[in-house]
Design brief:
The chain is of the alpha/beta class and 327 residues long. It has 3 domains: 4-168, 3-Layer(aba) Sandwich (Rossmann fold); 171-207; 209-326. The chain is 54% helix and 8% strand. It is built from 16 helices and 5 strands. It has helices at 11-22, 40-52, 66-72, 91-101, 118-121, 125-136, 156-159, 172-178, 185-195, 199-207, 210-223, 231-242, 249-267, 280-289, 292-310, 315-326, and strands spanning 29-34, 79-81, 111-115, 142-149, 163-166. The chain has a 5-stranded parallel sheet with strand order 2-3-4-1-5. Helix 4 links the parallel strand 2 and strand 3 (111-115). It is elongated and about 75 Å long. The two termini are 48 Å apart.
Length: 327
């Protein structure tokens, strides 16, 4: 369970929530809306624990009372996390929730219902409509917290019944700081650059070990020339490895694009603006290998590969052509 001390950034969202509490205006339904992976679910859990804490201090839970202990063990009877059974939440689950809400809270001052990612989980109109009456006239001492992506479609009828709390992309320094105990500072910074302010996205990319794959690609390209007989086999091997990351090929292209742009900065002697600092040891050799004119051509090749992926072209062929072009 997250506490407010654990939350990175999102000061405005927290301020908005606490301002409502200070004015004794706890909403019956909140919509935490913003990019994925920036802490919406964590803030929802922390807020749920806080409003039920028996002795909150300094803007956070006490961590010692019966309610806090139950939240910490993920066993609080009045915290209901409604997640999909399959692709989406089914209408039977909403009907079951309504029955649960007909009874008062078991142990806490407030029963909290958290429904994450409603732009996906409540995208079916009949499921959303089943929830609307409950949102409009919730049971006493019941608080709904819904989370949704800023770009996702959310029914206006749900929006109108919730107090919207905006969440924003995190600062790159905050994302890098999150990984300070697991990665070197240059690696954490490189991951932060392509995460777009989302710790969740950065965690996924770390799990895929995308930084290692990027370095392997660059070192392989540096070690070969287009005319080398071994280049063909090398390109096929790299492509086979790249295809294992499936839905994150765009992220790899972003990392390679950042690398090429960093090489352009290196050529100009502007090293302080370089993002790929974990690859600084390769840059002198890479700058000798690829002059500025060639690097601009590489940026064009990377853009073309990105467009081809959007058009659902054969992925293996896209990367084989790209790697041959980058040699």
């Amino acid at each position: 369970m997250k506490t407010f001390r654990d939350i990175i950034g999102q000061e405005k969202a927290r301020e908005m929530l606490f301002r409502g509490l200070e004015g004794n205006k706890l909403s019956h339904a909140y919509l935490f809306r913003g990019p994925g992976g920036v802490g919406k679910k964590s803030v929802a859990q922390a807020f749920s624990a806080y409003i039920n804490c028996l002795a909150p201090t300094d803007g956070d839970i006490c961590g010692k009372c019966a309610s806090c202990r139950k939240f910490r063990s993920a066993n609080h009877p009045d915290f209901l996390l409604i997640e999909p059974d399959g692709a989406q939440i089914k209408i039977a689950r909403i009907r079951e929730l309504k029955k649960q809400l007909s009874f008062p809270p078991f142990a806490a001052g407030y029963r909290v219902v958290l429904i994450p990612d409603i732009h996906v989980n409540l995208s079916r109109a009949e499921v959303a409509n089943s929830l609307l009456k409950t949102l409009e006239e919730p049971a006493e001492n019941t608080v709904f917290i819904l989370t949704g992506d800023e770009a996702g479609a959310i029914l206006p009828t749900i929006l109108s019944r919730c107090q919207v709390v905006p969440f924003h992309a995190l600062d790159e320094n905050d994302v890098a700081e999150f990984f300070s105990d697991e990665l070197s500072a240059p690696e954490a910074a490189a991951l932060a650059v392509i995460s777009e302010g989302s710790i969740g996205r950065a965690q996924l990319l770390q799990k895929l070990d995308i930084l290692t794959l990027r370095q392997e690609i660059i070192e392989a390209l540096l070690a070969r020339r287009a005319e080398d007989a071994e280049s063909v086999e090398m390109v096929f091997e790299l492509t086979e490895k790249v295809l294992t990351i499936k839905n994150n090929l765009d992220d790899l292209l972003d990392l390679l694009t950042v690398w090429v742009r960093d090489l352009l900065l290196f050529h100009q002697g502007i090293s302080e603006l370089i993002s790929s600092r974990d690859l600084l040891s390769l840059m002198a050799d890479a700058a000798r290998r690829w002059p500025v004119a060639v690097l601009f051509e590489q940026l064009t090749l990377l853009d073309r590969a990105r467009i081809q992926l959007l058009r659902n072209c054969n992925r293996a062929l896209v990367f084989e052509v790209l790697f041959f072009g980058l040699l």
